[in-house]
Amino acid sequence: MAAATATVLVIGRGPHGTGVAAGSPTTSTSPPGSPAPGTPSRVSLPTPTAFVPWRPLTARGVYPQAPVVTPGPPLAVPAGTPACWASQLEGIEAAGGAATGNVGERILLRNLSGAACYLEGYPDVSILGSSGQVLASAAGSADRGTFFDLSLQVVPILMEPGTPELTSSEEVGVSGLGQAFVNVTWYACHPAVQAAQAALHLPNGGGRLLVPFAIESPYSPACDATTTAYVALSRGPIDAAGYLSEPAPVYLEMAISIDAPTTATAGSSLTYYVTMRNASSTTYDLSECPDYVEMLFAKQPVASYQLNCAPVGAIAPGQEVTFQMQLAIPGTVAAGPNTLSWALVDGRLSMPTASTPIEIAPG
């Protein structure tokens, strides 16, 4: 087993000069069968004098979200108001929008009964085909949260009787006060499928509500990474319609760059470095380390790990930190020009990606 010793002090190059932020001299050892850290696949790459060593940490599958100021529900729930039953409600599907490769649908809800009730929490959701077959499901504590949720905060939502008829719209604010909505993100490919209904199992034992959901499964960039069946479904909490939360999420500006060899060999282990500089006025909290994805040809995922950020803890405004990376280049990658891309799976950042051209040599 090869071993290499390097000083892996995490250095912050801020407005007041250079100083040690965290870390200590460390011996980093390469995994069995791979080159020692700092050894490129083919072309020599100078090793940074200070970096956080790479570790093969398993991705957690958690998507941190940018902070927002979340108001309480626009309508207070009077004491003694009962929870809603599915038989009191109706729902429709409405387009929720698309952004940065994410596509969302929105289910709008209305109280048809003559008495007020409330909804609170995450419904279990199933997407059904024309014969009632389950195409996808999200239940319990799993698959909670979508890219389009303004907040994951759970609050009681008053469902008033006599509200306006539901209309399909991309703007939550168009729906009336006293109504509610649920964001849903659903993908299915290889093959794409046609849905007919969505089944919402309401919180607090409120029963099963069927909602028309006649859409074809949206496209996801994740479909490009596989030729086998891919299905994903997630949902947000029940939220109040009739108003828009302000202000919008506050994203951190993080300048990310890649320092990699110009050439890598198919079937080899590539060592490269990612530098993150905090260009915002807010400290980037890394008390919980986010995942990252490594891609070739710009959008084909090759590997995903959790960032080894425990030695850092946080990146202050103006500070930069370099992280060592290792990527096993698949032996099946075609020789020739390629693009190495690196993306941090963190919704708190406005642009958490970087890429660099790389030439793949035959193995």
What does this structure look like?
It is built from no helices and 25 strands. Helix content is 0%, strand content 41%. It folds into 2 domains: 144 residues, Sandwich (Immunoglobulin-like), CATH 2.60.40.10; 155 residues, no CATH class. The chain is an all-beta fold.
Topology:
Elements: E1 3-6, E2 10-14, E3 17-22, E4 26-29, E5 89-99, E6 102-111, E7 117-119, E8 124-128, E9 134-138, E10 157-159, E11 180-189, E12 197-201, E13 208-212, E14 230-235, E15 239-240, E16 254-259, E17 263-265, E18 269-278, E19 284-285, E20 291-296, E21 300-306, E22 314-315, E23 320-328, E24 336-345, E25 353-361
Parallel strand pairs: 17-25
Antiparallel strand pairs: 1-4, 2-3, 5-6, 6-11, 7-10, 8-9, 8-12, 11-14, 11-15, 12-13, 16-18, 18-23, 19-22, 20-21, 20-24, 24-25
Q: Strand-residue fraction?
A: 35-45%
Average of per-residue pLDDT values: 82
Tell me the count of domains. Answer: 2
- Largest β-sheet summary: 5 strands, antiparallel
Structural category: mainly beta
- Helix tally equals 0
How much helicity do the residues have?
A: under 10%
Distance between the termini: 22 Å
State Rg. Answer: 24 Å
Task: Sum up the overall morphology in one term.
Answer: elongated
Number of strands: 25
Report the order of strands and helices.
Answer: EEEEEEEEEEEEEEEEEEEEEEEEE
> Stretches where pLDDT falls below 50 for ≥5 residues?
1-43
- Give the oligomer, counting copies of the same chain as homo and different chains as hetero: single chain
